[in-house]
Specification:
The chain has seven helices and 14 strands. By secondary structure, the chain is an alpha/beta fold.
Length: about 250
């Protein structure tokens, strides 16, 4: 299974990173709809698309308004955005408010299912994570393949969602701050490098990929000091936009 990192930044786009958006082209699944959503156009294969949203903050949902371009010249049988009911209400009321974006969304909305079926015999489950306004993480499983996606929360070695991500082949986890900004990370509901690595180690995952980094540090080659994570969990990688990984 191939995962494409359409956008790996947080908060706002920069010259090198668009905001949160991951895609599994083989199964028509997108995780979060940040500013990188426009890139999905080149990876679309089938005529059905499922977009799973972790929460409704703008850097994770604004790409829903880009679907006009993404779906141009394509005939789709179904496009569905899945989110918690209160997040759907917020998106409809605010993102698609007439004064902000007077075009009806080019997708249907559906509440997140306890276990959502995925193509090729897969399923997606969600679990709650702590973040201002509320958010969820995702675990996706197929026979012989598994991954988890956790963004916008404060990681810890014993995080409450530890069991939900245990033993996955691939953990994609946010890492907005380096270690010295731990207090700011806790205040804003984000994660620091070493804490994510400790979590990955305790969860027994196979590979850790860090995303949702601070856009103000884009001139730094290693804005979150990934070496600190690799010292704890050697299978750690910092993703860049349009990277691909097999799991």
């Amino acid at each position: 299974m191939k995962l494409v990192f359409l956008g790996t930044g947080g908060y706002h786009p920069s010259d090198t990173r668009q905001t949160a958006c991951l895609m599994l082209p083989e199964v028509g699944v997108i995780l979060d709809a940040g500013t990188a959503m426009y890139r999905a156009k080149r990876f679309l294969r089938g005529d059905e698309l499922d977009i799973f949203l972790t929460h409704a903050h703008l850097d994770h949902v604004i790409g829903l308004t880009y679907l006009i371009d993404v779906l141009a010249d394509r005939t789709m049988k179904r496009v569905t955005a899945h989110a918690e009911p209160e997040k759907i209400d917020a998106i409809r009321a605010h993102l698609f408010a007439q004064d902000l974006f007077p075009v009806a969304p080019l997708c249907e909305f559906a509440p997140l299912a306890r276990a959502a079926p995925l193509p090729k015999g897969g399923r997606l489950t969600h679990f709650r994570v702590a973040h201002p306004g509320g958010a969820v993480g995702f675990r996706l499983e197929w026979p012989g393949h598994s991954m988890a996606y956790v963004t916008d929360t404060t990681a810890a070695a014993d995080a409450p969602y530890l069991d939900a991500i245990r033993d996955v082949d691939l953990l994609v986890h946010e890492c907005y701050f380096p270690d010295h900004a731990l207090e700011l990370a806790k205040l804003t509901g984000h994660s620091t490098t070493s804490e994510v690595a400790r979590l990955a180690k305790n969860a027994g995952v196979n590979k850790l990929v860090l995303v949702h980094v601070d856009p103000s540090k884009e001139e730094e080659a290693d804005p979150i000091h990934a070496a600190a994570a690799r010292a704890i969990f050697p299978g750690t990688f910092l993703a860049s936009d349009l990277d691909e990984v097999d799991f």
